[in-house]
Amino acid sequence: MAAKQGLPTLALRVLEEALGMGLTAARDTAEAVAAEGAYYLEQVTVTEASEDDYEYEEIPDDNFSIPEGEEDLAKAIQMVQEQATDTQILEQKTVLPSKQPVPEVIEDFLCNFLIKMGMTRTLDCFQSECKAREDLLKTQKERDFHRMHHKRIVQEKNKLINDLKRLKLHYASYEPTIRVLHEKHHTLLKQKMLTSLERDRAVGQISGLQATLKNMEIGHNYHASEIRVVPNREKENALEGPTQKGLREAREKNKSNTKIKDNTKDSEFPTALQPNPNLCLYKENICPAKVDYKLNNIFRLHELPVSCIVMHPCKDILISCGEDRLWKVVGLPKGNVLLTGFGHTDWLSDCCFHPSGNKLATSSGDTTVKLWDLSKGNCILTFEGHNHAVWSCTWHSCGDFVASSSLDTTSKIWDVNSERCRCTLYGHVDSVNSIEFFPGSNTLLTGSADKTLSVWDARTGNCEQSLYGHMHSVNDATFTPRGHMIASCDACGVIKLWDFRKLLPIVSIDVGPSPGNEVNFDSSGRVLAQASGNGVIHLLDLKSGQIHKLMGHESEAHTVVFSHDGEYLFSGGSDGTVRTWS
Questions:
Q1: 79, containing H or E segment
Q2: Integer Cα distance of 403 and 421 in angstroms
Q3: Which residue ranges contain the repeat WD (predicted)?
Q4: Chain segment 368-377, per-residue pLDDT in tens
Q5: Nearest 5°: CA angle at 289, between 299 and 518?
Q6: CA atoms of 406 and 430, how far apart (whole Å)
Q7: Is residue 478 very low, low, confident or very high in pLDDT (cuts 50, 70, 90)?
Q8: CA-CA distance, 237 to 336, in Å (whole number)?
Q9: What is the pLDDT of residue 284?
């Protein structure tokens, strides 16, 4: 009995030394085990079975041997190459190392053993490792899943990139076709206009014939004998019927009207180059250009967006045009409305002062250009001829001509004295968004949605030069006060400066991506202002190249202009307000 009790105590001592832990608290458990019985280690010899009595399973021959009679060196080499390729493919595959799963019986046995031996900390570590192994396997599976998902997303992205490139190439292949279609459209518009003229002429002839027939029906005393060829002396004394008398009176009346109209002669374009009226405003200042403007006042003038602001050439007043079909004369600096003009049936797009400052020209979406007497506020003349909305208008420095540009891809030069269109400028293939006379000359500058600027001779109507460089629709273009440089802005916010004497680009400044709606120089020509679609007024110092931003508009800024002394800046926005900066 003593031997039976000593053996478990010795085993427990050995376990204490091996595990490095005391089992004093587990002696009661050991005594209970000793009471049940002792554990013994027995050596068992396993005899190997005789190989003669073992039945082997026949394995089919799967080698890639070539049947007899079909040996071929080329086939043998091909087969060896295929086997080498298969071996490389198998080697390239990522094979996860196989882990021998621990049978649940062994885990349960270990857990029960640790519980019986009272090894709670070892049991906790064992169970924690088992749980950690399960979490690791789960995390590896999730990692593999996300890795496959990432590869699929990358493949889809590459496919979309290839599709996008293919679509760009496809779109580029259509550009020549679109250009040809624009040219055909322009040709068809010309043919349509000619057809309309011929139709009007035919309608006039038919109306004249109908009037003649009506007069013939009324004149019952008409006789065929009265229509005879007689000498001039006898024809004067020949009797006239009512029809001939009516026709003769109508002819005389038309001749008199034609003579009256012919008495109003067309204006003549100045042959000599006139002095630039803006040179008197130009001052060569050695001090830095003023760009530190701050918001000073806000004038609420229109219920709809402000489309244009212009300064009076002599007085401290400005005129604002809005999409509410009104133009207003505003006194400065208080911003009180002195005069309101109305008469257009659609939104106003632009306005321009007569060189003397006593007249105003306005363009509108109703396809007309109107001239106004500012002393009374009355419309004195209306020019009609455009087929679509008119975007811009400008006065010639002599005051006898007004030019306009339209959505119908044409520009027109109007004679104020003869009250007719003197010339139509063809050449742009898209909307002509801006037009301006070079100060003191017969040269016109236009900017178009076809991404080009064109220089025209107003006397002949010929396009002298086209300027290419913009990648988007040109929204506005203007001259410097000295006239030696051109500034233009496009629908993507790019500003370009051009040398007007050489007709070459100087520099390109990108302040986008918001569109540039209008550009204007100050009186010194050293600062350029642009009204942007995001409500920011960009000021470019041409000498230093620095760009300054004026933040104050709550919505889109449509127009911007400097005062004559450069101390004030005025801008109009889509909220119907005019903001003063000083």
A1: helix 73-92
A2: 9
A3: 341-382, 383-424, 425-466, 467-501, 550-582
A4: 999 999 988 8
A5: 50
A6: 10
A7: very high
A8: 73
A9: 47
Tokens of 249: 């009176």
DSSP state of 239: -
User: For residues 425 and 446, is the Cβ–Cβ distance under 8 A?
Assistant: yes
**pLDDT tier at 440 (50, 70, 90 boundaries)?**
confident
Separation between Cα atoms, residue 40 and residue 458, nearest integer Å? 123
Phi, psi of 473 (to 5 degrees): -60, 130
C-alpha neighbours within 13 Å on the C-beta side of residue 418:
17
Separation CA 18–CA 553 (nearest Å): 84
| Nearest partner of 117 among 18, 42, 43, 44, judged by Cα | 18
Q: What is the DSSP letter of 402?
A: E
Rounded-to-10 torsion of CA 246, 247, 251, 253: 20
Q: Are 530 and 519 in contact (CB under 8 A)?
A: yes
Residues 29-56 have pLDDT tens digits of: 445 444 444 445 555 555 555 445 555 5
> Measured between alpha carbons, how far is 126 from 20 in angstroms, rounded to an integer?
17
Whether 543 and 289 have beta carbons less than 8 Å apart is answered as yes
Percent with pLDDT over 90 in the chain: 42
Report H helices in 355-421: none
Render pLDDT for 507-530 as a digit per residue (tens, 0 to 9).
999 998 899 999 999 988 999 999
Mean pLDDT of all residues in 92-101: 52
Whether the pLDDT of residue 310 is over 80: the answer is yes
Instruction: Return the residue matching tokens 């091909």.
Output: 78
At a CB cut-off of 8 Å and minimum separation 6, what does 252 contact? none
The per-residue DSSP string of 270-305 comes to: PSSPPPPTTTTT-----SPPP----EEEEEE--SS-
N-to-C CA span, the chain:
114
Higher pLDDT, 354 or 243: 354
- CB atoms inside a 10 Å sphere around CB 141: 10
Six-digit token pair at 18?
Answer: 């091996």
246 within 8 A of 215, measured Cβ to Cβ: yes
**What is the enclosing helix (H) or strand (E) of 414?**
strand 411-415
For the segment 481-487, the average pLDDT, to the nearest whole number, is 91
25 DSSP assignment: G
> Minimal CA–CA distance to 288: which of 542, 568, 582?
542
pLDDT of residue 263 exceeding 80: no
What does the block give as tokens for 264?
Answer: 């109003």
Looking at residue 98, the DSSP 8-state letter turns out to be P
| β-sheet bridge partners, residue 295 | 581
Least Cα distance to 520 among 227, 228, 278 occurs for: 278
What's the 3-state SS for 113-167?
Answer: HHHHCCCHHHHHHHHHHHHHHHHHHHHHHHHHHHHHHHHHHHHHHHHHHHHHHHH
Nearest-angstrom CA–CA distance, 487 and 359: 27
> Which residues does residue 452 pair with via DSSP β-bridges, in sequence order?
468
CA 19/CA 42 separation, integer angstroms: 24
- Identity of residue 447: G
CA angle 545, 550, 556 (to 5 degrees): 115
Q: For residue 112, report the phi and psi dihedrals to the nearest 5 degrees.
A: -65, -40
- Residues 15-34 have pLDDT tens digits of 455 444 444 444 554 454 44
Q: Residue 417: how many CB atoms within 10 A of its CB?
A: 12
